[in-house]
Amino acid sequence: MGSDNKPVKANGMPVVSGKASSSLVGVIKLMLVSAVSLLIGTAIAFAIYSQGKTTKYDERIKQVYESESYWVYAAIVVLGRTITFINLYPSIFKKRIMLPKSGNIRSNPFIYKMIGEKASENAIIFDGEGDVGAYNRANRSLHHLVENFGALIAGLFTAGQVFPFPTFVLVCVFCVGRLAHQMGYTTGYGGHALGYVLSLIASSTIEGLLFVVVLKCFSVL
After folding, report:
1. What CATH number does the domain located at 23-100+129-217 have?
2. What integer pLDDT is reported at residue 81 of this predicted model?
């Protein structure tokens, strides 16, 4: 039976047991998703490297190799993949408590409940209606940005040292994506999807550029 067939509470959330457990299969899937996004970013990055000013890039990569700075590049890639996994991990539990048809409820990063005497059993969530709902989701988009941009900020200088113009273009794509994410989110859950994809591709490609440098320094490419 799919998640849509679970008994549903009055608040639109399914009735679930009080037990919380992670799934090894779910964790493996998230690791694969994280790896695939890096592979896509690396493929785009390699196209930038091979179809762009390759000779110039090689000269700069040589300087990275001689200074052993490639360890910093590798560290940022590891950081980026860790941030990606940590942000994906809650989705294992999200799909158990929020149905695909739940709409704006899915924008909630937390679900609250009352405790104490005469506490209500209903869940406490964001107000998702009208301007208040738009305000809440716009702020959720801001939180999502903060949750995800650590590796991009860390990688700007290092990627820019080797690939200055491509880094500028990718940051512009990332910014357009984030603007689309926030403005789209105000229209309702799901309106942020295009912006999410654009910003994900841009940030993954920044990491891909770093990974290309690492692979070149280790003579893999």
Report:
1. 1.20.120
2. 95
